[in-house]
Amino acid sequence: MTPDTIYITDVAPRDGLQNQAVHLSTEAKLDLIEHLVQAGVNSVEATSFVSPKAVPQMADAGDLIGRVQTRWPQLRSSVLVPNLKGLERAHAAGAQEIAVVLCASETMNRKNINMGLDAALDVCEQTLAQAHALGLRTRAYVAVAFDCPFEGETPLAAVLHLAARMVEARAGEIVIADTIGSAAPLQVKQRLSALRDVVPSDRLAVHLHDTRGLGAANAWAALEAGVRRFDSSVGGIGGCPFAPGAAGNLATEDLVLMAQRCGLTSDISLDALLDAVDFAEAQLQKPLGGRASAWLRRERAKRREAL
Ligand code: COA
Ligand code: ZN
Question: For the chain, which end, N or C, has fewer CB atoms within 10 Å of the first or last residue's CB respectively?
Answer without folding.
Answer: C
